[in-house]
Amino acid sequence: MDFSHRRQKVLKPEQGELAISYPHDLQMYTTPPVCEISLTEFEQLAIDRLKLLRTIEQISLHGLAKNSEEWKIAVANELKKHLDLKYFLKLINSTGVKSKEPDYQARKCDHISHFVLRLAFCRTEELRRWLISRELELFRLRWLHLSAEGKSEFIRLNNLNYNPITPSERIEMNKESSGMVISTADYYRVPFTQVLDLVRLRKVFLHHGFAYITNTDIISVLLTVFRSRLSHELSRTARQLPAMEVIEEDQDRIFRPLKALPHAYIGEDYSNKKTGEKVPIECIDSLARQSFPLCMRQLHAKLRHDHKLKHHGRLQYALFLKGIGVTLEDILTMWREEWAKSEPEKFEKGGVAYLLRHSYGKEGKRTNYTPQSCMKIITASVGTGDQHGCPFKHNDVSAIRLTLTQ
């Protein structure tokens, strides 16, 4: 996907309305957003949140304990590298109860992006599991940054009714637990079924079906509640989605990108290389076999086998080669040699050479075109015999298997 474009700002209702809708930085996402945004904003917010969740996933794979300070710092340091995620970083680092206009806007973006990803990730059990796991990690991270006031306010706003036990109860439980419950610390009494992870680790005192947990461990209860609600809502959305796709007039513009989103590339953007590095044309064949994404490896193989490409395939592959550092002179040389084996007269007269020069900004409006984004490739219209597009979206399974084994 292409993350180089600046995101348009979400439409701003009155600050008073935002204050009512978003009183806290952390949300349970109990109600869908009701507002108008452009399709561009809709897609960009989804991309941003997916990028955030995958970033947290990568940090978590490093083996750091998810309650640790090292994990918090590692995630924050990684997110600082992504300027387009600054509003998420703002929310993650927040204590929970600020009330300035930028905070309300960040909360609104958080709200909308969460529900857009629900639409994208509700389709299969595997996608639902992935989203639930990532959203739980994000929820935990944000909870760890909240102040004591922010945590108490979150519990109150969400009507969770987790009140600390009284001093007299603490003294009684201290005796019942043989000192496991400390009489001077704050504890919550919750049904033990809501903290099975803590029970499994023997970190809580159980008494008459209730678990006595510390203020630090209340996050386990919240995660259980959040997981249950999100799992239920994702399943419900999955059941309703077919009807939504039929009713929605612009379903192709809205739901087609959503279907592709879980598989979208969101890594580093190489479309605007500033180092001046060049990729020698002599290395293209080996690079195609070892390093090209499947869509580009497929186009390269077609070019070498058929000694030509159709228009959309030419454009998709030429912009990719430009993006990785192949010079205009080298691509003209390589493609001229290929067309000479099939349709030599079409290279100049048929517009192939012009398309290459135009793609590199040397003809026409002299625009510096960037490689096509993953989303653009996935959502492209591909007809019979066309060579462009995304193999995982437009090819059948047998064709993909054949390509991968070559």
From TrEMBL:
Segments forming domain DNA primase large subunit C-terminal: 286-403
Asked if the Swiss-Prot or TrEMBL record annotates the protein with the keyword Metal-binding, the reply is yes
Query: What cofactor(s) does the depicted protein rely on?
Result: [4Fe-4S] cluster
Asked if Nucleotide-binding is a keyword of the record, the answer is: no
Gene Ontology CC annotations of this record: alpha DNA polymerase:primase complex
Q: Which UniProt keywords apply?
A: 4Fe-4S, DNA replication, DNA-binding, Iron, Iron-sulfur, Metal-binding, Primosome
Which family is it part of? Belongs to the eukaryotic-type primase large subunit family.
What is this protein's name?
DNA primase large subunit
Q: Which species is this UniProt entry from?
A: Graphocephala atropunctata
